[in-house]
Design goal:
By secondary structure, the protein is of the alpha+beta class. The chain has 2 domains: 76 residues, Ubiquitin-like (UB roll) (Roll); 72 residues, [2Fe-2S]-binding domain (DNA polymerase, domain 1), CATH 1.10.150. Helices cover 31% and strands 14% of the residues. The chain contains 5 helices and 5 strands; from the N terminus they run ββαβββαααα. A 5-stranded mixed β-sheet has the order 2-1-5-3-4, covered by helices on one side. It is globular, with a radius of gyration of 17 Å. Bound molecules: FE2/S2 (inorganic) cluster (2 copies). One FE2/S2 (inorganic) cluster (FES) binds next to loops.
Amino acid sequence: MCNHDKNKDCFEYVDSQLPRVPLELVVNGEKVHEMIDPNMTLLNFLRNNLKLFGAKEGCGEGECGACTIIMDNRTVNSCLVLAVEAQGAEILTVEGLSKDGQLSILQQEFIKEDGLQCGFCTPGMLMSARNLLDRNPNPTVEEVKKGMAGNYCRCTGYDSIIRSVLAAAERERKELS
Ligand code: FES
Ligand code: FES
Protein backbone atom coordinates (compact mmCIF):
# COMPACT_ATOMS: atom_id res chain seq x y z
CA MET A 1 0.00 0.00 0.00
CA CYS A 2 1.28 3.47 -0.75
CA ASN A 3 1.53 6.70 1.21
CA HIS A 4 -0.24 8.93 -1.31
CA ASP A 5 -3.44 9.29 0.63
CA LYS A 6 -3.53 7.80 4.10
CA ASN A 7 -7.34 7.64 4.05
CA LYS A 8 -7.53 5.47 0.97
CA ASP A 9 -6.29 2.06 -0.07
CA CYS A 10 -3.96 2.42 -2.99
CA PHE A 11 -2.12 -0.48 -4.55
CA GLU A 12 0.61 1.54 -6.21
CA TYR A 13 3.92 -0.25 -5.84
CA VAL A 14 6.21 1.09 -3.12
CA ASP A 15 9.85 0.03 -3.21
CA SER A 16 10.99 -1.80 -0.05
CA GLN A 17 14.55 -0.39 -0.38
CA LEU A 18 15.95 -3.89 0.25
CA PRO A 19 19.03 -5.00 -1.72
CA ARG A 20 18.12 -6.07 -5.26
CA VAL A 21 18.06 -9.74 -6.26
CA PRO A 22 18.42 -11.22 -9.75
CA LEU A 23 15.36 -12.61 -11.51
CA GLU A 24 15.41 -14.59 -14.73
CA LEU A 25 12.28 -15.88 -16.39
CA VAL A 26 10.47 -16.07 -19.72
CA VAL A 27 7.50 -13.78 -20.28
CA ASN A 28 5.35 -14.23 -23.38
CA GLY A 29 8.19 -16.10 -25.06
CA GLU A 30 10.87 -13.48 -24.30
CA LYS A 31 13.74 -14.02 -21.87
CA VAL A 32 13.80 -11.44 -19.10
CA HIS A 33 16.66 -10.78 -16.71
CA GLU A 34 16.31 -8.00 -14.12
CA MET A 35 17.52 -7.01 -10.68
CA ILE A 36 14.42 -6.58 -8.55
CA ASP A 37 13.10 -5.64 -5.14
CA PRO A 38 12.71 -9.02 -3.33
CA ASN A 39 9.39 -7.86 -1.85
CA MET A 40 7.83 -7.14 -5.21
CA THR A 41 4.85 -9.24 -6.28
CA LEU A 42 4.80 -10.85 -9.69
CA LEU A 43 1.89 -8.57 -10.59
CA ASN A 44 3.91 -5.48 -9.72
CA PHE A 45 6.90 -6.84 -11.61
CA LEU A 46 4.81 -7.33 -14.76
CA ARG A 47 3.15 -3.94 -14.50
CA ASN A 48 5.97 -1.75 -13.15
CA ASN A 49 9.07 -3.32 -14.66
CA LEU A 50 7.81 -4.85 -17.88
CA LYS A 51 4.98 -2.38 -18.53
CA LEU A 52 2.55 -5.20 -19.20
CA PHE A 53 -0.63 -3.60 -17.91
CA GLY A 54 -3.10 -6.35 -18.85
CA ALA A 55 -3.19 -8.06 -15.46
CA LYS A 56 -4.96 -5.79 -12.97
CA GLU A 57 -4.90 -5.35 -9.23
CA GLY A 58 -8.52 -5.65 -8.13
CA CYS A 59 -8.55 -6.90 -4.57
CA GLY A 60 -4.85 -7.61 -4.01
CA GLU A 61 -5.91 -10.57 -1.84
CA GLY A 62 -6.43 -13.49 -4.19
CA GLU A 63 -10.21 -13.09 -4.33
CA CYS A 64 -11.19 -11.46 -7.62
CA GLY A 65 -9.03 -13.03 -10.36
CA ALA A 66 -8.29 -9.71 -12.10
CA CYS A 67 -4.55 -10.43 -11.82
CA THR A 68 -4.73 -13.98 -13.24
CA ILE A 69 -1.83 -15.04 -15.43
CA ILE A 70 -0.47 -18.43 -16.48
CA MET A 71 2.76 -19.55 -14.83
CA ASP A 72 4.26 -22.87 -15.93
CA ASN A 73 0.90 -23.96 -17.37
CA ARG A 74 -1.09 -23.15 -14.21
CA THR A 75 -3.20 -20.10 -13.53
CA VAL A 76 -2.03 -18.06 -10.56
CA ASN A 77 -3.21 -14.91 -8.88
CA SER A 78 -0.13 -12.82 -9.57
CA CYS A 79 -0.98 -10.49 -6.67
CA LEU A 80 -0.22 -13.39 -4.31
CA VAL A 81 3.03 -14.56 -5.92
CA LEU A 82 6.36 -12.87 -5.20
CA ALA A 83 8.28 -12.14 -8.37
CA VAL A 84 11.23 -14.11 -6.96
CA GLU A 85 8.97 -17.18 -6.77
CA ALA A 86 8.75 -17.03 -10.55
CA GLN A 87 12.49 -17.63 -10.91
CA GLY A 88 13.01 -19.69 -14.10
CA ALA A 89 9.28 -19.84 -14.83
CA GLU A 90 7.43 -19.44 -18.10
CA ILE A 91 4.81 -16.76 -17.82
CA LEU A 92 1.95 -16.04 -20.18
CA THR A 93 -0.03 -12.82 -19.81
CA VAL A 94 -2.97 -11.54 -21.82
CA GLU A 95 -0.51 -9.61 -24.00
CA GLY A 96 0.92 -12.96 -25.15
CA LEU A 97 -2.38 -14.32 -26.49
CA SER A 98 -2.34 -12.47 -29.80
CA LYS A 99 0.21 -13.34 -32.49
CA ASP A 100 1.58 -10.98 -35.16
CA GLY A 101 -1.03 -8.37 -34.32
CA GLN A 102 -3.84 -10.90 -34.77
CA LEU A 103 -6.21 -11.63 -31.89
CA SER A 104 -6.41 -15.28 -30.88
CA ILE A 105 -9.56 -17.31 -31.51
CA LEU A 106 -10.37 -17.04 -27.81
CA GLN A 107 -10.14 -13.24 -27.88
CA GLN A 108 -12.18 -13.08 -31.10
CA GLU A 109 -14.94 -15.20 -29.56
CA PHE A 110 -15.01 -13.05 -26.42
CA ILE A 111 -15.72 -10.08 -28.70
CA LYS A 112 -18.29 -11.92 -30.87
CA GLU A 113 -20.24 -13.45 -27.99
CA ASP A 114 -20.12 -10.33 -25.78
CA GLY A 115 -17.90 -12.03 -23.20
CA LEU A 116 -15.64 -9.01 -23.47
CA GLN A 117 -16.64 -6.79 -20.61
CA CYS A 118 -14.56 -4.22 -18.75
CA GLY A 119 -10.80 -3.99 -18.99
CA PHE A 120 -10.51 -4.91 -15.35
CA CYS A 121 -11.97 -8.40 -15.30
CA THR A 122 -11.51 -9.47 -18.94
CA PRO A 123 -7.73 -10.10 -19.00
CA GLY A 124 -8.02 -12.47 -16.03
CA MET A 125 -11.08 -14.18 -17.55
CA LEU A 126 -9.16 -14.74 -20.78
CA MET A 127 -6.21 -16.30 -18.97
CA SER A 128 -8.40 -18.70 -16.99
CA ALA A 129 -10.25 -19.61 -20.17
CA ARG A 130 -6.94 -20.16 -22.01
CA ASN A 131 -5.68 -22.47 -19.31
CA LEU A 132 -8.97 -24.36 -19.21
CA LEU A 133 -8.96 -24.96 -22.98
CA ASP A 134 -5.32 -26.02 -22.91
CA ARG A 135 -6.20 -28.69 -20.36
CA ASN A 136 -9.63 -29.54 -21.72
CA PRO A 137 -10.35 -28.63 -25.38
CA ASN A 138 -13.96 -29.78 -25.20
CA PRO A 139 -15.40 -28.58 -21.87
CA THR A 140 -19.00 -28.81 -20.76
CA VAL A 141 -20.86 -25.77 -19.41
CA GLU A 142 -20.23 -27.04 -15.88
CA GLU A 143 -16.53 -27.43 -16.58
CA VAL A 144 -16.33 -23.88 -17.95
CA LYS A 145 -18.09 -22.57 -14.84
CA LYS A 146 -15.65 -24.44 -12.65
CA GLY A 147 -12.64 -23.32 -14.68
CA MET A 148 -13.70 -19.68 -14.41
CA ALA A 149 -14.84 -19.83 -10.80
CA GLY A 150 -11.98 -17.67 -9.54
CA ASN A 151 -12.77 -14.75 -11.84
CA TYR A 152 -15.37 -12.28 -10.66
CA CYS A 153 -17.30 -9.67 -12.51
CA ARG A 154 -19.27 -7.33 -10.30
CA CYS A 155 -21.30 -5.74 -13.06
CA THR A 156 -22.90 -8.15 -15.48
CA GLY A 157 -23.80 -11.79 -15.95
CA TYR A 158 -21.57 -14.72 -16.73
CA ASP A 159 -23.67 -16.28 -19.55
CA SER A 160 -21.90 -14.43 -22.34
CA ILE A 161 -18.51 -15.37 -20.89
CA ILE A 162 -19.42 -19.06 -20.78
CA ARG A 163 -20.78 -18.83 -24.36
CA SER A 164 -17.53 -17.21 -25.49
CA VAL A 165 -15.39 -19.98 -24.01
CA LEU A 166 -17.58 -22.72 -25.54
CA ALA A 167 -17.53 -21.00 -28.95
CA ALA A 168 -13.74 -20.63 -28.78
CA ALA A 169 -13.39 -24.29 -27.81
CA GLU A 170 -15.45 -25.37 -30.81
CA ARG A 171 -13.49 -23.16 -33.22
CA GLU A 172 -10.12 -24.23 -31.83
CA ARG A 173 -11.06 -27.89 -32.20
CA LYS A 174 -12.03 -27.29 -35.84
CA GLU A 175 -9.34 -24.83 -36.87
CA LEU A 176 -6.29 -25.80 -34.85
CA SER A 177 -6.44 -29.58 -34.85
S1 FES B 1 -6.02 -8.70 -7.54
FE1 FES B 1 -5.25 -10.69 -7.42
S2 FES B 1 -6.99 -11.90 -7.01
FE2 FES B 1 -7.74 -9.85 -6.96
S1 FES C 1 -15.83 -6.29 -13.38
FE1 FES C 1 -15.43 -6.21 -15.47
S2 FES C 1 -17.38 -5.96 -16.42
FE2 FES C 1 -17.76 -6.15 -14.28
